[in-house]
Amino acid sequence: MLQPRHRPGETPGGFATSHRAPVNSSAPRQGPRRVIGIDPGSIRCGIGVVERDGNRVVHIYSATVQCGRGDFSTRLTRIYGAINEACTLHSPDGAAIEGIFHHRNADSALKLGHARGVAMLALAHAGLSPLELSPAEVKKSIGAWGRADKDQVQAMVRRLIGVATPMGLDESDALAIAIAGLYHKPLLAR
Question: What pTM was computed for the model?
């Protein structure tokens, strides 16, 4: 089940602009203005959309897709549907997804690979070619250090986008990935 997070005063079809936070003032001004970030997972998948407005990052949308532990194809269908819906409603012009990392459990790694594949397919169907970022690249780009834990990443994301209300860790990870993608040089060159 999709649990969306909209900014105060936002309707599903429109956006308020009340949450704005400064970001690196020397950031380039070309490249995508709106990026969707995906934190893939087969049990929970984070989705975040941010937009650049001058030197500020604006929180547009974020959600955690609760896939559960039921039928695996149903879980993948939920991921695809949620990403497709987010792309349709929020029209990103860039995409970023967490890259592959080493996993100790082969079964978990395979399931994560499937979830990533479905996420990348949904992005491709939306006309987006996602930038793959390592967790360390994401953390560095939002001002956290390479070994920062999920709570520290969440605190940085909330500070950058000016959201005071709590959010899920998958949701904040997806927003961090979107923010990293917004200012990542290869995505800017597209």
Answer: 0.80
